Amino acid sequence: MDMDCGVMEFSEEELMDISGVKRNEDFLEVTCGCTSHRYGDAVGRLRVFSNGELEITCECTPGCDEDKLTPAAFEKHSGRETARKWKNNIWVMIDGEKVPLSKTPLLKYYNKAAARTSNGSNRSQNRQVFHRDEFVRCTSCNKGRRFRLRSKEECRLHHDALADPNWTCADSPFDKLTCENDEERASRRVYRGCARSATCKGCTSCVCFGCETCRFSDCNCQTCTDFTRNVKA
């Protein structure tokens, strides 16, 4: 089976000695990490998708809420001194040893995707992606407020709200909200406006991991900086 059929397959031999392996219908998850000489090990969970996407949820501290990081963003978040070499700096545990991703089979789908786009075309331009509705929580009342992401302007409003550590209901750009307004019913929140599935939970067929609609060259956040740099590369 190959990735063009939408199926991801690693043999038992390939995964046998890798620590923390979990199989999912849509991705493979393993324990990973990146070591800084100053801060020590930052540990995370690497998800490997059959379409070549790589996504890391950081677990460097109990209170860290960094998730859906690109490998480059995780590398920088860890404080690694020699950044921009994530294939060699991010490791997984094999037989008790830290082994760079570049020396494991975990990058084979990533490398296949890169090979298909090596003619200079931008992957985000060659596939149709969707931006489902997302929610931002008020820092005052903790109620989730819906953001529609149908245009670049709407994506920017959500992006900036998510980055604002003091965002409140009163800052909502769509409605005149206060913390007194009720939160959407749970039965309504499951409908996320995805064109493929109204109750999309975030599958890789529907959710965009970065494109020119939701990433911004004038933004200095790590996510936008990584995207802009990769597009220029």
From TrEMBL:
Q: Which GO terms describe its cellular component?
A: cytosol; nucleus
Q: Which GO terms describe its molecular function?
A: DNA binding
Q: Which Pfam families match?
A: SAND_ULT1 (PF23292), zf_ULT1 (PF23293)
Q: Where is the SAND domain?
A: 13-103
Q: Which InterPro entries match?
A: Developmental_reg_ULTRAPETALA, SAND-like_dom_sf, SAND_dom, ULT1/2_SAND, ULT1/2_Znf
Stated name of the protein: SAND domain-containing protein
- Source organism: Kalanchoe fedtschenkoi (Lavender scallops)
